[in-house]
Amino acid sequence: MGRNIHDIFVIGGGINGCGIARDAVGRGYSVALAEMNDFASGTSSGATKLIHGGLRYLEHYEFRLVRESLMEREILWAMAPHIIWPLRFVLPYHKGGIRPAWLIRLGLFLYDHLGGRKLLPPTSVLDMRSDPAGKPLKALFAKAFEYSDGWVDDARMVVLNARDAADKGATIMPRTKVVSARRENGLWHIETTDTLTGRNDSHQARMLVNAAGPWVDHVIRSAFGQNEAHHVRLVQGSHIVVKKKFDDVRAYFFQNPDNRIIFAIPYEGDFTLIGTTDRDYTADPRDVRISEEETVYLCNAASEYFKEPVKPEDIVWTYSAVRPLYDDGASKAQEATRDYVLKLEGEGEAAPLLNVFGGKLTTYRRLSEHALEKIGAAIGVKGAPWTAKSHLPGGDFPVKGYEAEVAKLKRRYPFLTDPHARRLVRRYGTKAQVLLGDARGIDDLGRLFGGDLYEAEVKYLAEHEWARHGEDVLWRRTKDGLRLSKEQAQSLEEYMAARPAMAG
């Protein structure tokens, strides 16, 4: 393996690493990627799962980031209409509230006009005394503003970028830790360890991309042996999931007295997602968990708006992640820039290194394009930008074609219930037919693990999407962990453990 010299070796299997690998291999570079755990096992599956411009970033004058994010919303939606879809947000307002109405109107005007909005509907004003969106809220909120953004299945977006990169020829290595990287004779010499088998491998590359997210400084210190690395500000964001608080298909944007905001979002049909928090984090990112303080904060903040309070006992699941923001010296965690920073190192004959700091789901594609500009300047340009008109695997159908895809799947597989068909199209798009194959009845899908998770789907995830453990299936490739009992989840884990490891 060491004799095979790659153009680019990427460290990190989150959205930025997988996005850069996909873009690069699509331009003709030879690419390898190593992720020490499963794809999206860190920050990229711990987001609020929005494709959004970042309305609140306008307050911090992040106009470039907001404009780029707004322009990306419809590009990404067209790339992956199975895992991304439009979502309307209701921003309740009352006199004497946190922000004056004129400021909200100005922000929403900019939001409507800064970016390339073509398909998403514009901002409107709601009378909450008559609009259904007012029903679950306290009577205090007689008025609201409604605007557009998007929803994304974040972990699926990561793995689909990895899948497409592999399909285009990249060497994709999950559960592979980079233990050292050194420059020698104009090349990077990289040593890796397979965390499942213990196998050690050597690789060579003309250029190294460090996209390790919260671990980017750790990689600089440990793998490269550089002691001084303090570029990242780690900010913890936590979320709670409760049983469904409202029937409306729209989400809510709640403003808090401390000037922070949270969202309450319809989630997986039967639940409501509430988050996020923003607080500095100093421990190991692997150990991040929601704190009691954050739980109480989210419950209290949502209860300021909902007629029916949100209580800790309502929570069915929590998740927490660490965002690796570029340390710009901001005094508060919520004020630290969400923009990304790309730093190129390597002068003269030294093999170049690109360190990736910050970023967000919405801007990952543009971050990748900017990374490729720096890569081209360092080792030579190959190919032109191409991802804006591309599709992620399964997303090759019209941007507003979800309902038609569901109908098509139900015609071909009439034994599927409507919720099952909808979930399959949401997860896999046109690839749902590959998953179902020649099945003529529900029994052909094999063992039922719980909910509507059948053996055929689990096999597909193991063979095509690198799923190795029950957790990979239940919490990253799907969210069926919300519907399976502990006994059913254990049964799935035992099934996965008995399966031979798949190369993906």
Automatic annotation (TrEMBL):
InterPro entries: DAO_C (IPR031656), DAO_C_sf (IPR038299), FAD-dep_OxRdtase (IPR006076), FAD/NAD-bd_sf (IPR036188), G3P_DH_FAD-dep (IPR000447). The lineage of its organism: Bacteria, Pseudomonadati, Pseudomonadota, Alphaproteobacteria, Hyphomicrobiales. Residues 387-493 form the Alpha-glycerophosphate oxidase C-terminal domain. Its EC number is 1.1.5.3. Keywords: FAD, Flavoprotein, Oxidoreductase. The keyword Flavoprotein applies. This is Glycerol-3-phosphate dehydrogenase. Residues 7-336 form the FAD dependent oxidoreductase domain. Its cofactor is FAD. Belongs to the FAD-dependent glycerol-3-phosphate dehydrogenase family. Coiled coil: none annotated. It catalyses: a quinone + sn-glycerol 3-phosphate = dihydroxyacetone phosphate + a quinol. It is an enzyme of class 1 (oxidoreductase). GO terms for biological process: glycerol-3-phosphate catabolic process. One of its GO terms (cellular component) is glycerol-3-phosphate dehydrogenase (FAD) complex. GO terms for molecular function: glycerol-3-phosphate dehydrogenase (quinone) activity. The keyword Oxidoreductase applies.
